[in-house]
């Protein structure tokens, strides 16, 4: 049993009629040419049962505190059945990527049932070329992007032949009769829940002051707050108090998001597009430009968004502001919940030259990383801890909607998760690509771009609200166009040099 952190609970409270706060992924699997590589619901359920002990997030459910007076708890679900979470469907002809994306978007819209473990898997047949797809979603209060990839990885193998996974060790038998375990698999008692809620409520003022002090040290890194007069001086002073560091802080730009068509209240419907870009091309551009792979990814997103906005005569004259999730996992051994922070950075959509966009983007990311490395804590988690649980449960979704109307803090979220650079297999079938999907909220905008590097490709998943961005496939096309543009201007192919004629043996080559 473990209580959700304030950040974990925030993902629960953000949910509303128009926001479903789960993360997901779409794995596209190779066609099967043998029974050993056929992916069926029965084989997937059997695999999950065999490896369930490797993925604790899949067998836990929420136990809520009465009247939301405190954050919920994770407890083992005594009635858990894997088969109830695995579904199977078949696309109608022609089974192309458009139909697949449409089906996945419909599934992604639906909220998870909070009375059960918060996950689902959907095996989708009928794709062109005999391919099969697996869509899996888990609530964001249970996992972040990195732990989500680890959860999926527990089901994958390095060869078509599934590896042997040792079963969980049986519990030790006590030598003498012992008292029942203290709520090991059931919800904490009502008295215990209420006692914890009262204690945390009494201590909340001190917790708020503590969070304010730590957030002050990051005032210049926070959207909207960075525009306050003296934000950088306050952050420098607070950093010295909290960490004892006296070095000069890197100077960040003001993080004020301009208005765009994809910012504002969102609806409940979703659109999805996906595609891949050769990772070798991205690495080549990064190498030739003296940048990182992530710098190139951010530049591709900036370029695609710039083109999309120009098509609608809606391009702001200043950079867009993107939130970039960052994993902060340490050696705590925590396998559930969120261990993330966020870097907020401008992306140079206002620059016309692709080379200049990449140069400026790389410089912005270097500055943001230096500033992030010197931060005492993640302001996202501290912000989530500032108010009592009952207040955040009631107010979060309303505050998000109000912020989207008055002044959105960011324009969108862009996330890049590194993955393995070798082929993986599920139930004997090769995974051809893995396209991640994330969350849309009123406050973060109506489009989210996420990518995952896998086996030589950069696999993108773009999620949108059609009230804000209806033609999401066009954005995917602009990403590919941006890659072609960078390849042409930053890393053009080497000029072919005619081969010198062969020199007969023993003949001297002219100087």
Walkthrough of the structure:
This protein has 511 residues and is α+β, with helices and mostly antiparallel strands. Helices cover 34% and strands 19% of the residues. It is built from twelve helices and 15 strands. It has helices spanning 6-13, 41-51, 97-109, 145-153, 190-216, 231-243, 279-289, 293-311, 354-373, 379-384, 389-406, 472-489; strands spanning 2-3, 22-29, 60-63, 73-76, 86-90, 119-125, 132-139, 271-278, 320-327, 340-347, 412-417, 425-426, 429-437, 447-454, 457-464. It has a six-stranded mixed β-sheet with strand order 5-6-7-2-13-12, with helices on both faces. A six-stranded mixed β-sheet has the order 8-15-14-11-9-10. Helix 7 (279-289) packs across helix 8. It is globular, with a radius of gyration of 25 Å. The termini are far apart. The model is unreliable at 175-185 and 495-511 (pLDDT under 50).
């Amino acid at each position: 049993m473990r209580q959700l952190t304030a950040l974990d609970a925030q993902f629960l409270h953000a949910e509303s009629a128009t926001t479903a706060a789960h993360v997901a992924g779409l794995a596209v699997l190779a066609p099967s040419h043998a029974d050993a590589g056929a992916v069926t619901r029965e084989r997937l359920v059997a695999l999950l049962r065999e490896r369930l002990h490797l993925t604790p997030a899949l067998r836990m459910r929420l136990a809520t505190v009465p009247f939301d007076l405190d954050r919920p708890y994770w407890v083992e679900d005594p009635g858990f059945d894997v088969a109830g979470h695995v579904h199977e469907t078949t696309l109608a002809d022609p089974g192309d990527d458009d139909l697949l994306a449409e089906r996945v978007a419909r599934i992604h819209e639906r909220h998870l049932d909070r009375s059960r473990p918060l996950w689902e898997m959907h095996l989708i047949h009928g794709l062109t070329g005999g391919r099969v797809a697996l869509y899996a979603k888990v609530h964001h209060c249970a996992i972040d992007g990195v732990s989500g990839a680890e959860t999926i990885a527990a089901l994958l193998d390095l060869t078509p032949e599934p590896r042997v996974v040792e079963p969980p060790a049986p519990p030790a038998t006590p030598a003498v009769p012992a008292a029942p375990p203290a709520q090991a698999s059931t919800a904490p008692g009502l008295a215990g829940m209420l006692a914890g809620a009262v204690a945390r409520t009494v201590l909340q003022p001190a917790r708020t002051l503590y969070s304010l002090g730590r957030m002050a040290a990051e005032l210049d890194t926070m959207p909207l707050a960075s525009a306050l007069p003296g934000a950088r001086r306050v952050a420098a002073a607070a950093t010295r108090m909290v960490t004892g560091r006296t070095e000069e802080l890197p100077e960040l730009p003001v993080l004020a998001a301009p208005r765009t068509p994809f910012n504002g209240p969102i609806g409940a419907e979703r659109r999805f597009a996906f595609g891949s870009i050769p990772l070798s091309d991205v690495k080549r551009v990064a190498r030739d430009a003296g940048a990182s792979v992530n710098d190139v990814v951010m530049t591709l997103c900036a370029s695609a968004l710039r083109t999309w906005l120009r098509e609608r005569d809606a391009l702001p004259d200043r950079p867009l502001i993107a939130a970039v999730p960052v994993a902060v996992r340490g050696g705590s051994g925590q396998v559930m919940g969120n261990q993330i922070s966020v870097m907020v950075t401008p992306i140079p959509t206002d620059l016309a030259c692709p080379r200049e966009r990449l140069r400026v983007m790389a410089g912005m990311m270097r500055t943001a990383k230096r500033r992030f490395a010197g931060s005492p804590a993640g302001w996202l988690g501290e912000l989530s801890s500032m108010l009592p649980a009952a207040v955040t449960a009631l107010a979060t979704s309303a505050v998000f909607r109000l912020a989207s109307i008055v002044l959105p803090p960011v324009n969108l979220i862009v996330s890049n998760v590194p993955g393995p650079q070798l082929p993986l297999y599920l139930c004997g079938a090769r995974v051809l690509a893995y396209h991640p999907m994330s969350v849309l909220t009123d406050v973060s905008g109506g489009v989210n771009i996420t990518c995952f590097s896998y086996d030589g490709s950069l696999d993108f998943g773009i999620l949108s609200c059609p009230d804000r961005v209806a033609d999401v496939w066009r954005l995917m096309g602009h990403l590919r166009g941006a890659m072609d543009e960078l390849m042409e201007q930053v890393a053009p192919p080497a000029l072919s040099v005619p081969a010198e004629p062969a020199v007969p043996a023993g003949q001297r080559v002219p100087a």
